[in-house]
């Protein structure tokens, strides 16, 4: 039975995480510290955070100066993945679905370029923003956007396939029509790797959380949430997230 003082949040749509904010704060140095916030924040959203961390550092693994593209860039995973790529010295280009998101990515998250994919095509945007080609793609979206980004990639590029949000609501009775990118993967010898973040459960998991907490504490990463209050608002918050209303992680507090 939960006590009134316990903090409870839904993580993903399946699990409950129960935390004791006083305990967390006491162990890491005071309720107002940025580090306290960082650790509490990361512990309740760790699956998404580690998806960004391990997907970027282990699968994309950008070298300094390489060009990285992120789709779903203003979401929880995408915004973090882009900031991690910046820490690794890459040039980062994001695609998101509103001007407000694009502004936030450049002004707060430090992306080099960001585009509203509803206003400009991916191909047109990358022609000017990545004239030397794309080296890494952190893919939250799938579908046509993936085919377009891959067509702009350099030889030996790396794709971390994290999500397929363009297809989650697809009508499964009809084939999903996507331009063929298979030939580009072959000709450019691209390494495209899907992942489930559970792959890194075990000793590495907490390393990811602590590294992210340190970066947040140092001000190198700016986390953001869009918060909806009340358990009864879970369905509307979920639909709003799929419509793209959230910036950063969509969270429902109960
Ligand atoms: N592989 C793993 O282990 C793992 C773990 C966690 C999450 N994921 C996946 O990672 C992805 C990102 O998760 P998240 O929590 O950060 O979600 P999110 O970005 O907060 O929410 C989804 C966002 O995707 C964008 N979007 C929706 N439909 C789109 C479409 N048709 N084309 C392009 N963009 C679209 C919307 O923003 P816009 O306004 O930009 O359109 C929306 O806000 C999801 O696909 C999720 O399933 C994978």
From TrEMBL:
Enzyme class, spelled out: oxidoreductase
Domain of life: Eukaryota
A GO MF term: 15-oxoprostaglandin 13-reductase [NAD(P)+] activity
EC number from the UniProt entry: 1.3.1.48
Annotated InterPro entries: ADH-like_C, ER, GroES-like_sf, MDR_fam, NAD(P)-bd_dom_sf
Signal peptide: none
Domain Enoyl reductase (ER): from-to ranges: 4-252
Source organism (scientific name): Apolygus lucorum
GO biological process: prostaglandin metabolic process
SUPFAM superfamilies on file: GroES-like (SSF50129), NAD(P)-binding Rossmann-fold domains (SSF51735)
Lineage: Eukaryota, Metazoa, Ecdysozoa, Arthropoda, Hexapoda
Name the UniProt record assigns to this protein: 15-oxoprostaglandin 13-reductase
Keywords, in A-Z order: Oxidoreductase
One Pfam family recorded for the sequence: ADH_zinc_N
Listed SMART domains: PKS_ER
């Amino acid at each position: 039975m939960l006590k009134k003082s316990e903090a409870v949040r839904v993580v993903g749509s399946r699990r409950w995480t129960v935390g004791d904010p006083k305990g967390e704060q006491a162990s890491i140095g005071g309720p107002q510290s940025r580090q306290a916030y960082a650790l509490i924040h990361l512990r309740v959203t760790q699956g998404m955070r580690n998806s960004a961390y391990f997907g970027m550092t282990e699968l994309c693994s950008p070298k300094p100066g390489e060009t990285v593209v992120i789709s779903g860039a203003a979401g929880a995973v995408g915004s973090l993945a882009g900031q991690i790529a910046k820490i690794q010295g890459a040039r980062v280009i994001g695609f998101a679905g509103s001007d407000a998101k694009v502004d936030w990515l450049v002004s707060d998250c430090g992306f080099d370029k960001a585009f509203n994919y509803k206003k400009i095509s991916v191909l047109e945007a990358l022609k000017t923003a990545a004239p030397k080609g794309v080296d890494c793609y952190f893919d939250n979206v799938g579908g046509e956007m993936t085919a377009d980004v891959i067509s702009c990639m350099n030889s030996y590029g790396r794709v971390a396939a994290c999500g397929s949000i363009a297809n989650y609501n697809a009508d499964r009775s009809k084939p999903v029509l996507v331009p063929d990118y298979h030939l580009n993967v072959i000709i450019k010898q691209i390494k495209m790797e899907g992942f489930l973040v559970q792959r890194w459960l075990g000793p590495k998991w907490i390393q990811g959380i602590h590294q992210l907490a340190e970066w947040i504490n140092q001000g190198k990463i700016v986390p953001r949430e869009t918060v909806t209050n009340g358990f009864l608002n879970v369905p509307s918050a979920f639909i709003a997230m799929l419509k793209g209303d959230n910036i950063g992680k969509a969270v429902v507090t109960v």
